[in-house]
Amino acid sequence: MSMIIDDVQVMEPSEELLEKYADLGKTLKDRIPCLEWEFHVPWIDAIRKLKRERNAVIMAHNYQAPEIFHTVADFTGDSLALAQESAKVDADVVVLCGVHFMAESAKVLAPDRTVLIPDLGAGCSLASSITGADVRRLRAMYPGVPVVTYVNTSAEVKAESDACCTSANALQVVEAMGTDRVLFLPDKYLGAHVAKHTSVELILWEGACEVHERFTSHQVQQVRDKFKAAVVAHPECPPDVLDAADFVGSTTAMSSWLRRERPERVALITECSMADNLRVEFPEIDFVKPCNLCPHMQRITLPGIYRCLRDMSPEVHVPAEIAAGARRALERMLAVGRRDAV
After folding, report:
1. Predicted TM-score of the model (pTM)
2. 75, 94, 268, 286 - which has most CB atoms within 10 Å?
3. pLDDT value of position 10
4. Which of 115, 74, 66, 40 is nearest to 309 (CA)?
């Protein structure tokens, strides 16, 4: 019996195919509730075959669904780590399983590789909250004030900036500008969090992540009261949520904190798939809600990845003049990181 999904015909898994992935299936099904393993197996097998044929690698963000993150991805991590790996890998094709600005960053840092994204509609509320024209207007309003831009932005916005930053290194990049004032774009909550830890005056933009801004301090208190859980929050959350959390950090920092602290029970105040993926690495930790799903990340599916590799489309392009400016801003951020690491 066969099924047609996203214009691709895939057979139901044979006993031989299920046996081939039995160990992987047992690991995931034991740790991730409601994983429809038999449905995913044919797609996983077909994608792995196509990867070899295309000399392709798959980069999956931490917010990707477990059936992608743990089965077909060659590299996993935050958006910047994936872009950096794209520039290093020995492959002709990079499939970026994340949102569009991440695929753009991969193309900027790996201009000679074919970069694909399974769904062009996978956007980002932060990236869409500001344009290159907005940055130019801000520069005119605040002449001489450097612009630090969160990596969760389009290549066009990065190209208009002095430096990029991640949620992990935002403070270091802001202070590396060497000025009393910095335009910090576009996440107002991340900016407010950074402002609490520096004497630099931050001029903020009114952008926010539609996933993280929905969390409330009331939810944090409920988690503590009901589950006695440690609370780990992403800095894109509102200030009252961050104030109530036990730890605030990027997706990478969250993983490091869990590895170091090993709490009995934890609530990750971020995108839901993050907790699902970490359950595999930390089976002894009880992960509890709340969490919110990112509708854009959910647009990336196994059938979509297969179709993307089959058709070598949609391909991500960044105009040369924009790519040059965005690369400069990213490289300035990376230079700060290298200096701090010395």
Report:
1. 0.90
2. 94
3. 61
4. 115
